[in-house]
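Researcher: We're teaching a course module on how sequence relates to structure. For the next exercise, students receive a sequence and then see the predicted structure as tokens, so they can try to spot secondary structure elements on their own. Here is the exercise chain.
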Amino acid sequence: MKLTRREHLALMGGALTAAAIPAGLSADGHTVHEVQMLNQDPENKRERQVFVPSVVRAMPGDTIRFIATDRGHNAQSNEDWSPEGGTEWKGSINQEVEVTIDVDGAYMYECQPHSSAGMIGLILVGDVSGNYEDLKGQRFRGKAKQRAQAYFEMADEMLAAEA
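Model: And here is the predicted structure for the students to work with:
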């Protein structure tokens, strides 16, 4: 499925808004970013099985809090989609999970039961140049392929805006 311009802009707007307004600060002064695990995108009802926001911009030491807003989801890393030496995590179904990421790079993560349905997300931590292009070359299956492409486009725009 190809995203329409309106759907792409809605996804990008939500990701940019969430990246610009972090959820809060941790006890050590780092940012805590909240990502909801949802059955349906609140801004695009046709998109199901999503992380919101789908793209997060973070710095080393920041925490990502995955909130089990809807039942039946988890959030977990995939060693093929993380930088070398990067943080790995595996949340349980229906449970909130927090991960503090200390290693620069790009991290694609998934909901294990819904990965092929496209339930993936992207975290950009600090300097992503070490693995970002390699991650973009990874093979994604099912709906995850289209979503990954859209998320990389959003990430490219975020990174270009920082330059």
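Model: If you want an answer key for the exercise: The chain is about 25% helix and 30% strand. The domain at 5-158 is CATH 2.60.40.420 (Immunoglobulin-like).
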